[in-house]
Write a structure and sequence with these properties.
- This protein has a domain of 235 residues: Aspartate Aminotransferase, domain 2, CATH 3.40.640.
- 29% of the residues lie in helices and 12% in strands.
- The chain has ten helices and 13 strands.
Length: 443
C-alpha cells in the first residue's frame, strides 16, 4: 500500500472534486420556495395559521397528540422544563456531554442541574449513573439522543417510573429516529427539539415540542405564546387567571417562513433520511474494524436507527495505536483527502464550564446552579471524570449513496489507519487533556 499523503504519498482523493449531491443539505426545491413566498407576499411572518397546520402535521408524524412550535430549539427545551412542572429547588438530571441548550435554561427556573456520565460508546446518558444522581428533590431526567444515537430508553423509563420522575427527550440530533421500532420523542412526558438550518430536519431557525398530555400542552402554550394563551386553548384552572400574557415573560412565537418550510420538508423527510442512513452505513461498513476507532452507530437489526445521522463520527481509542495523538490522525486524514476533518470530543462536558460552577445570575452570592437548592450538586461533579476525555473524530456527512465516491473516503481511512505506526514519528505530543467544543458551526 502506498504511504500516506502526509508522509509524501499521493492523496487518495480531492474532496473538492466529489459529487456535489454527496454532501448537499438541506434539500430545498421550488415547493419550499413557493411556501416561503406565500408567507412573505401575504405578510404572514408573525401569524399563527401556517404554524398551526405545521403543528398538526408534525404531531401526526410523531404519533403524539400535541405539538407546539416556537422560535428555536432552546426555547422549546426551556418550555418543556416548565411544562413538566420544574420549579425553584427542583433537580434535573442531564448528561454532561451535550449541547448547552439541553439544560442551561433550567437555571432560569431556579432548577439545579445534576450532571450524569455518558456511555463512552453511545455518547448518551449512562443509565448506570442515574442512581448516583438521584436526590430527594430530583424531579425529571433530560434524555439526549446525542449525535443521532438513540439513548437506552428501556432503562431510563424504568428508572423514571420506579422513582416517579418526569422525562424530557431532547431530540435535536435525532428527528425521525427510532429506538427498537418506536419513534424517538414518543417516550418522555414531553420531547423538544431544534429544527435549525444545521440539523438533519432543517427549517431555518425553529423549535418544536410534542406531548400526549393536555396539561403539558397547555403549559407549553401559556409559557411562550402570548397570542395563544387564551380561553379557546387553555382549560387548566391553574393557568386560567394568567391568560393573554406569556408566563415566561418571553415571546417564543415561530416565524411562519420557517414553519412553512417545515411543512414541505416534513413531506419528504423520512425518504431523504433513509438515503442518508444508507450512505453513512455504507461508509461505516467500509471502515468497520480498523484499529483505534469505533464506528458511532446503532445496530439497526434491533429496530433502532441513527435518524438523520446528525454529526457522524468515530470514537477514538489511542491506546490501540501506541498512544498516537488524535491531532496527528486528523492531520493525516485531511492530507489524504482535502476534507476538513475535525477533532471533536463532541460538546465539552458542561460541568467544566464556569457558567455551571460560579456564575451568579440571581445576585444571591452563590452559583445560579444551586441558588435555590438544599444541597450543593456541584460536589457530584467529581465523579464525572470518565466523561471528560472521550475523543471523537468527525467523519464526512454523506447525504446520498454514491458508492464509487464514498469508496474513495473508505480507502483514505484504511490507508491512514492501517499504517498508523508510521504516523507516530509525526506526533507533537500526548493526547490533549480535554477535547470538544462549546458550539457547533453551521456548515
Amino acid at each position: 500500500m502506498e504511504k500516506p499523503a502526509i508522509l509524501g504519498g499521493n492523496r487518495t482523493l480531492e474532496h473538492e472534486n466529489s459529487p456535489e449531491e454527496l454532501f448537499h443539505w438541506p434539500i430545498f426545491t421550488e415547493e419550499d420556495e413557493a411556501a416561503v413566498l406565500d408567507v412573505f407576499r401575504n405578510n404572514k411572518m408573525s401569524g399563527n395559521d401556517v404554524t398551526a397546520e405545521f403543528e398538526k402535521e408534525f404531531a401526526a408524524w410523531q404519533g403524539r397528540r400535541f405539538a407546539v412550535a416556537c422560535c428555536n430549539g432552546t426555547m422549546s427545551l426551556y418550555a418543556a422544563m416548565f411544562a413538566v412542572g420544574l420549579k425553584a429547588g427542583d433537580e434535573l438530571i442531564c448528561p454532561t456531554k451535550t449541547y448547552w441548550a439541553s439544560c442551561l435554561s433550567a437555571q432560569n427556573l431556579g432548577v439545579s442541574v445534576v450532571f450524569a456520565n455518558v456511555d463512552p460508546d453511545t455518547l448518551c446518558l449512562d443509565p448506570d449513573d442515574l442512581p448516583r444522581c438521584l436526590g430527594p428533590r430530583t424531579k425529571a431526567i433530560m434524555v439526549v439522543h446525542y449525535k443521532g444515537y438513540p439513548c437506552d430508553m428501556d432503562r431510563v423509563m424504568a428508572f423514571a417510573d420506579a422513582h416517579g420522575l418526569m422525562v424530557i427527550e431532547d431530540v435535536s440530533h435525532a428527528q425521525g429516529g427510532h429506538y427498537k421500532g418506536r419513534m424517538l420523542g414518543t417516550f418522555g412526558d414531553v420531547a423538544a427539539m431544534s429544527l435549525m438550518s444545521g440539523k438533519s430536519f432543517a427549517c431555518g431557525e425553529l423549535g418544536v415540542a410534542v406531548t400526549d398530555d393536555r396539561v403539558c400542552y397547555e403549559r407549553l402554550l401559556a409559557f411562550l405564546h402570548y397570542e395563544r394563551n387564551e380561553e379557546s386553548l387553555i382549560t387548566d384552572p391553574a393557568l386560567l387567571p394568567f391568560l393573554h400574557l406569556p408566563l415566561s415573560g418571553l415571546k417564543g412565537r415561530a416565524n411562519q417562513i420557517c414553519t412553512a418550510i417545515g411543512r414541505v420538508q416534513l413531506k419528504y423527510y423520512d425518504a431523504r433520511i433513509r438515503e442518508v442512513r444508507r450512505a453513512n452505513n455504507y461508509f461505516f461498513d467500509g471502515i468497520e474494524g480498523l484499529p483505534g476507532i469505533r464506528c458511532h452507530r446503532v445496530d439497526e437489526s434491533t429496530g433502532s436507527d441513527m435518524a438523520g445521522w446528525y454529526i457522524p463520527c468515530v470514537v477514538y481509542h489511542p491506546e490501540e495505536l501506541g498512544g498516537l495523538s488524535p491531532e496527528t490522525v486528523v492531520r493525516a486524514l485531511t492530507a489524504e483527502t482535502g476534507f476538513p476533518f475535525h477533532l471533536l470530543g463532541g460538546s465539552f462536558p458542561l460541568h467544566t464550564h464556569p457558567l455551571f460552577q460560579t456564575y451568579d445570575a440571581w445576585g444571591l452570592g452563590r452559583s445560579s446552579r444551586v441558588a435555590f437548592a438544599d444541597r450543593d450538586v456541584r460536589e457530584l461533579d467529581k465523579d464525572l471524570k470518565r466523561s471528560e476525555h472521550i475523543v471523537v473524530i468527525e467523519t464526512p456527512y454523506f447525504k446520498k449513496l454514491i458508492p464509487e465516491a464514498i469508496d474513495r473516503y473508505i480507502s483514505a481511512f484504511r490507508k491512514v489507519f492501517s499504517q498508523w505506526e508510521q504516523l507516530l514519528a509525526l506526533d507533537d505530543g500526548p493526547l490533549a487533556e480535554e477535547t470538544g467544543q462549546w458550539h457547533a458551526a453551521v456548515k
